[in-house]
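Memo to structure team: turn this sequence into structure tokens by end of day. - J.P.
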Amino acid sequence: MGFIRVVSVNVAGSFSILIAVILMHVKKFGGYANVAAATFLLVLFKELLISAAIIFSNLTGLNTIYSVPEFSGPPGHRLGPWWHVFGHLTFGIGFQTLFGTAMGLLILWILRTLVPPIKEAKQP
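Reply from structure team:
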């Protein structure tokens, strides 16, 4: 239970963007436009997963991190869980794609500027 309290889906999403950018640099596959596309796809999957968890906890009545009043509002609140899902699928995807892309582009630029490319040895 302690590990779940420390690591969140957002941290895992940011870490996945970091890994994707590092792999793009190391494998020499992709550029700055690919960072934006990969970030969008990773954020989209993450937000769909979170939205599914919110809907599941609402339909089953299970008490999860997404259904407690601190994050979803008190029971019977006019904004309820459906607005919570709507927020994740609109603002969550939009803002996190922008910030994730900015973070990824900065990291890729730093890697390309400071880390010299590995030269492959020519075979005779």
